[in-house]
Design brief:
574 residues; alpha/beta
């Protein structure tokens, strides 16, 4: 029997200080994949009582940290060892960057004496990660590591601009270096309260005058509005403005609120004369704010970071402030002022929204032209079976178009602005671990599911009671349709098999069922929820084409993401 030694017995090493720093910051779990370069931290973290969720691929660890951050409002932390461990995280870090999710990735790197000599897994991680992080650093001085961690966390939560992922690596010999307590300042260790930025009164007056004078006012929110739900509802009630949610801020306003006109999105955007944009970038999902899409709009922009304030279309005014404080100030400044909303326009859009929503809820075909289950049946079953407060995750290309309409949950995450497929399983694992008392349902296209399917094993090992639904249409269907419709019917490299994903789940220790008849899906979902972690493999139709595919999202038009917007943009340019 081998006699164990303890290379990590010293409680004053840099690695020990890192673990205590994370504990002081309220970190209760870390997602990662172990390796020798990070083992000193890994061991000390566990000794601090911080839970380690060990995954099967480092990208999944960052996806889980991302989901944990978005769903809990806390910092998400991941760890990856040197070389391929760190490089495997790049896509997930890029996704967190576009999502502006506060994620700290701690990476390993070779010891200083071996640097640049050709050591194991030595590669310039910092140079690779710098473009997709708020900061990327190698901390080489042991007594300064905690200070650098403090700065990295500050950058992750947005102290120097947009929030987002940060990367810090520490050479292994530095992790083993002893640092006396007097060199680690309490102010570096201590958690910091969130910063609040009050608005400028003159800008508030301009915003109130513009919004309350508008005839066709529209409010659109994004990630930056997430902590301003109560103020947002009060503003909608007081101003009479109509409202469009984006998936970034779902749940801030009840779908039953009279301002909501999501089913008439295109008309609302075309007609609006004033658009109040709160914590939302004008990216491709909003047609870049182009006059071709917003034909008559003047923008008012509110955000606490410049990235959500100045891109593509400028605001009149632009209010750099904490959104909740800015909306509160607008309400106070407006007082009892009556809005000038065109009641005929607003009521007409509300009525058409209600009619479309009612029509979408009427039972339609349950199978496609090939006789296999229509994807819509998945969302009908979820609506029938799931708890009202369930957490919904959607992952896929074509499937996402169905999910945005069909998933009614107020707590929702999907592939995001980056269109990062593969998030569905790790997001759901993190959600189920963060909220063990709530149902978590992840709906995945079969292509997207395959990217991180092995994390079903992680769910089983860690007791993440999520349900994973696979829409198994044996294709990357939005691309397959694009090839079929726009490339002479030459379908190449976009078809899969109706593989038995339920059998895979059972092999990994989860409950698994395969469903091939629409009428059997709801009961299968009930059993899955009762036996989670579980996977329901639904054999769906390739012939059921999504609205995104029909609108040209897979085609990638020249000027705009959708063909109708691209046509309008071309007319504007002529």
């Amino acid at each position: 029997m081998t006699t164990a030694i303890d290379l990590n017995a010293d409680d004053t090493t840099t690695a020990a200080w890192i673990a205590r720093f994370l504990k002081a910051r309220g970190i209760d779990r870390i997602f990662g994949l172990q390796g020798g370069h990070i083992q000193p931290i890994w061991d000390h973290v566990a000794r601090q009582g911080i839970r380690i969720i060990d995954v099967r691929h480092e990208a999944a660890a960052v996806h889980m940290a991302h989901a944990h951050a978005e769903l809990t409002g806390a910092l998400g932390v991941a760890m990856a060892t040197a070389g391929p461990g760190v490089t495997n995280t790049v896509t997930a870090m890029a996704n967190a960057s576009l999502a502006r999710a506060p994620v700290l990735l701690i990476g390993g790197c070779t010891s200083r004496p071996q640097a640049n000599m050709g050591p194991l897994q030595d590669i310039p991680h910092v140079d690779i990660l710098r473009p997709v992080t708020r900061t990327a650093r190698t901390a080489r001085v042991a007594e300064q590591v905690v200070r650098e961690l403090d700065e990295a966390v500050a950058r992750a939560i947005g102290d120097m601009g947009e929030p987002g992922p940060v990367y810090i690596e520490i050479p292994t010999d530095v992790l083993r270096t002893s640092v006396p307590p007097q060199l680690v300042l309490d102010e570096w260790m201590a958690a910091k309260p969130p910063r609040l930025a009050p608005p400028d009164a003159a800008d508030i007056a301009l915003a109130v005058d513009a919004l309350w004078s508008a005839r066709r006012p529209l409010v659109i929110t994004g990630r930056g509005a997430r902590n301003a739900g109560a103020e947002l509802v009060r503003l909608l009630d007081a101003s009479g403005a109509l409202y469009l949610d984006t998936q970034e801020s779902r749940g801030l306003v009840s779908p039953d609120h009279s301002a909501v006109v999501g089913a008439m999105r295109a008309a609302a955007m075309t007609d609006a004369d004033v658009v109040l944009l709160i914590g939302r970038k004008l990216d491709y999902q909003l047609g870049y704010g182009s006059p071709a899409v917003f034909a008559h709009a003047r923008f008012i922009r509110i955000a606490d970071t410049a990235g959500e304030l100045i891109d593509n279309r400028r605001g009149q005014p632009e209010i750099m402030a904490t959104p909740a404080l800015a909306l509160r100030a607008m309400l106070e400044a407006a007082g009892n002022r009556r809005s000038r909303v065109d009641a005929g326009w607003a009521d007409g859009l509300r009525r058409k929204h209600r009619d479309r929503m009612a029509a979408s809820s009427v039972a339609k075909e349950t199978v496609g032209a090939d006789g296999k289950i229509h994807p819509r049946v998945i969302f009908d079953a979820i609506a029938e079976v799931a708890d009202p407060d369930h957490i919904a995750i959607a992952d896929g290309g074509d499937l996402l178009s169905f999910a945005r309409v069909g998933l009614a949950s107020r707590t929702y995450m999907d592939a995001g602005a980056f269109g990062c497929l593969g998030v569905g399983v790790p997001f759901a694992v993190a959600a189920a671990l963060a909220f063990p008392g709530r149902q978590v349902i992840s709906v995945n296209g079969d292509g997207a599911f395959g990217i991180n399917a092995m994390e079903i094993d992680t769910a089983v090992r860690h007791g993440a009671r999520a349900v994973f639904i696979v829409s198994n249409n044996a294709a990357w269907n939005i691309e397959r349709y694009d090839q079929e419709a726009n490339y002479g019917g030459r379908v190449v490299g976009t078809t899969l098999r109706h593989s038995d994903y339920a059998a895979m789940a059972r092999a990994l220790g989860a409950h698994g069922e395969r469903v091939e008849e629409p009428g059997k899906l709801a009961d299968a979902l009930r059993r899955a929820l009762a036996n989670a972690p579980a996977l329901v493999d639904v054999v769906t139709s390739q012939a059921a084409i999504s609205s995104d595919a029909r609108k040209g999202l897979g085609f990638v038009p020249d000027f705009q993401p959708l063909t109708a917007w691209d046509d309008a943009e071309r007319k504007r340019r002529m």
